[in-house]
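HUMAN: Mind sharing a backbone?

ASSISTANT:
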Amino acid sequence: MVKVVRTSLVSRLIKICLGVVGLSLGILGYRYFDHSFSVVLISVFAAFIILQGLLPYLIHRRVYYRNPRLNGFRTVTFDDDGLKSDGETGHVERKWNTFEKFTETDNLFLTYLTRDVVGIVPKRAFPSQEAVAQFRDFRASKLRRD
């Protein structure tokens, strides 16, 4: 399972707007006041705006590569009782009623244990398109789809 960290769009937009305001103040200050302070102000707020886009990516990448257990191989079995996952780090069993919902992308099946914890099943793990369709129908009968 993977924890999904959400930052609201409004929060990110507010931070970007604050960065733009600070950057604008730095540019105006450079034109009308002390150049050295304005250069510092421009640099700080430009870095702030850039970090708003890069920081979530860098944090998730760091967490992923610092925890090799997250990307190890697992054998996952789905049956009428629920999900069973076996890997080198342990054994996990989850009943179907512990999952909230599932969604599907072009390449993945996503099973939500909670709003922020997601189980990922790649479609490439299935031997054929028929097996993908069979799994889709099986999960639809067990979980709520969003």
